[in-house]
Amino acid sequence: MEPDPAASPARCVGRRRALVAAALLVLVAATAWFRAHAAFSDPQFDRRNPDGLLKSDPALLQALTARIVAAGGSIPEDFAADRTLEHPDVIDVAARFPLGHLVLVAQAHRLLGGGEALHVTAVRAAALSMALALAGVFLLARELAGSSRLALLAALLAAATPAFHRTIGFGFVDEDWFWPLFALHVGLSARAARLRSPGAVLAAALSAAAALATWHAAGFFLALEALVLLGVLAWTGRSPLAVRGGFLAPLALLVAALAVPFLREAGAWSSIPVAAAVGLWLATCARTPRGARALGLGAAGAIAAAGALAGEGAYGHVFALLLAKLEHLGLRPRDGSALDAEVRILWQGPFATPSLGHAAVVLSLSGALGTLAAGRALLAARERAPSVASAAAALCLLSLFAAWLAERALVLPALLAPPLSAWAASRLRAGPALLAGAALAQIALCATWSAGYRNPWYHAPLVRQAEIRWMVETVARVVPRGEPVAADFMTSAAILAKSGNPIVFSPKWEAREPRRRAAELLEVFHHRSPEEFRRLLVERYRVRWLVVDRFTLQYLARWSAGLPPGSFEPLPGTAAAALLAQDDAALRSIQGYELVARSPDSIRHPDGTPSDFHRIFRLAE
């Protein structure tokens, strides 16, 4: 029997697709292994005991995930009326936090039989989740370059970019679950622009809605994409949603904004991504380019403004921070007292402005090539209508600006630069060879970077872990179970994760009340008397136990508290001056405070001096 002439080419195409899929799968698996291996190889990472590792946001999310595990892998009933996160208030946990990925981690932990500690399962799950972002990178590169080979090289380039691995070792951070969905969304959006079919639009819309539901900050990154699409509308007078099924984009985002509890609570219906999607779809109803511009841009602006006027916008504090950064050119002013208290408490950690040197190191060769390619794509767009490549280029350049505003945004250009490099390579005769060489060079640079990788969360300073471990173990021993404990927002979460004692000050500041409490804590502790501080805790928050951490309150939070620049010494006569003292007799003689325990002399700095970070007090009624 002669072979079917039509079947052979089909089999070849199928075989090539299978090989490409297998190669991408191997790359994802290798990247997930690399991230987990780098985390577990850190000498300060304890795979058996999370005490000392967990503080701030990761500790709070660990505590919530542990409760989900205990509830059989589903949302516990008591989440609807939780009394542990913001004592003495009762809150709905689902209305405050995205919980979907916590359920996935809990289910994975149960599936694995609980043989490893929960924080280890979380690190493995986060490593796999972030590695899956390479699928979105591949898809976008495939659409831009028209070549699976170049797309695989782009995914390899992204996997070897240090900024892609910003969250190695944390385990419990929402962004590890957002970036894969966002990268997939961008890739599917590029595909929808080519196919212009309802199915392709729906896939892009659903991935956007899923990304929005993973993280409070998701809306800001989707807003960058929305600004690019609104820019296309303003430039051409034609909406990118002027395709069959274009209405599915605003519909999917609106459904997510109204159906997901924390998005509904935050008023996401009027966020920039949702407002832009509605405006872009309404623009398709206009008959002229001028009408499309007026209707689309006007509707988007009106919806966002309506949300702000209605008080629904929950992220005004973030916009205030961004405005302050622009005003001060990204440099934190030496004296922060003139800034709003909420701006001061946010301007730290992942919201810090990265140095040019750090950004250059973590974006590396990949970032440089992508930036050059983005510039080339935008120059090409001046001569003809905007394309998917020029839109991706604009988004990439916007992402660099976003990364300057907040360090955590460095992941975005790490995702967008490689596909743009693939696009540029597709226009050069020797492009594939050049891109392959760049990928090999980037792998070498990443190997050098990762060889000495140490998560700064666990290494600054080294005695910090021992101190936190002693503190949480002592609190679990001396504080009655169920008794609320007051401590700073980083220390509180560590206590919650260890013993489950209710806390007053949460490290998650997306809602207004936790931010207000954080600012109040720093204000009263650093600027009022010990008696005023005691009355605040006992009368307003109804707590009798207090943990004071010198490292956080005296050093890390000094600028956030609006203290004058200069010495680290507390202001005389304040609660800080009394409670941060290192003289034992002075600590035991503070009226209204009974010193129960303080850091042991056995925990010392490398120079031999006692660290003396923590002290635990019982407060008089």
Strand content range:
under 5%
Which stretches of 5+ consecutive residues score pLDDT under 50? none
What is the strand tally?
A: 4
DSSP helical segment count: 28
Distance separating the two termini: 95 Å
Please explain how this structure is put together:
The protein is mainly alpha-helical. Among the domains are: 173-439, no CATH class; 458-619, Rossmann fold, CATH 3.40.50. The protein has 28 helices and four strands. The chain has helices at residues 7-41, 56-70, 93-96, 100-111, 118-131, 133-145, 148-159, 175-195, 198-212, 218-236, 248-259, 261-265, 272-283, 289-309, 316-327, 341-346, 356-381, 388-405, 411-425, 431-451, 456-459, 463-478, 489-499, 512-527, 530-540, 550-556, 575-579, 584-588, and strands spanning 485-486, 545-549, 593-598, 614-619. A four-stranded mixed sheet has the order 1-2-4-3. Helix 2 (56-70) crosses helix 4 (100-111) and helix 6 packs parallel to helix 8. The protein is globular and about 85 Å long. The mean pLDDT is 92.
Please sum up the structure shown:
The protein is mainly α and 621 residues long. Helix content is 62%, strand content 3%. Among the domains are: 173-439, no CATH class; 458-619, 3-Layer(aba) Sandwich (Rossmann fold), CATH 3.40.50.
What's the layout of helices and strands?
Blueprint lengths: L6 H35 L14 H15 L22 H4 L3 H12 L6 H14 L1 H13 L2 H12 L15 H21 L2 H15 L5 H19 L11 H12 L1 H5 L6 H12 L5 H21 L6 H12 L13 H6 L9 H26 L6 H18 L5 H15 L5 H21 L4 H4 L3 H16 L6 E2 L2 H11 L12 H16 L2 H11 L4 E5 H7 L18 H5 L4 H5 L4 E6 L15 E6 L2
Parallel strand pairs: 1-2
Antiparallel strand pairs: 2-4, 3-4
